[in-house]
Specification:
This protein has a single domain, classed as HIT-like (HIT family, subunit A, 2-Layer Sandwich). The N and C termini lie far apart (about 50 Å). The chain is of the alpha+beta class and about 100 residues long. A 5-stranded antiparallel β-sheet has the order 1-2-3-5-4. Helices cover about 25% and strands about 30% of the residues. A hairpin with a 6-residue loop joins strand 2 and strand 3.
């Protein structure tokens, strides 16, 4: 049975579910910072997901990033899996406003 890591529960607010992932919002006022967590037990690495789940995770990540970029007028989207604090596989999708422009 899927359970969100206790650290993620403590540091985030629930938003909802995609077909594969639980979507949570990081409790950080500096950036719109969302996290997708595949609802699969005992998965800590992307390669542990089967091929269909890997594709689904990427589709959900891409759809979320595109929507956030448009909604927040982002200059850059930071998308990454990090495991330095929480071993449960999770994808960070962070809106960044870098202050640079492609024509500069």
């Amino acid at each position: 049975m899927f359970a969100l890591d206790s650290r993620l529960q403590q540091d985030t607010l629930p938003v909802g579910d995609f077909p594969l992932c639980r979507l949570v919002l990081m409790n950080d006022a500096q950036y719109p910072w969302f996290i997708l967590v595949p609802r699969r037990d005992e998965i800590s690495e992307l390669f542990q997901l089967d091929t269909d789940d890997q594709q689904q995770l990427w589709q959900e990540t891409t759809a979320l990033a595109e929507m956030l970029k448009d909604t927040f007028g982002a200059d850059k989207m930071n998308v990454a899996t990090l495991g330095n604090m929480v071993s449960q596989l999770h994808m960070h999708v962070i809106v960044r406003r870098c202050g640079f422009h492609a024509d500069s």
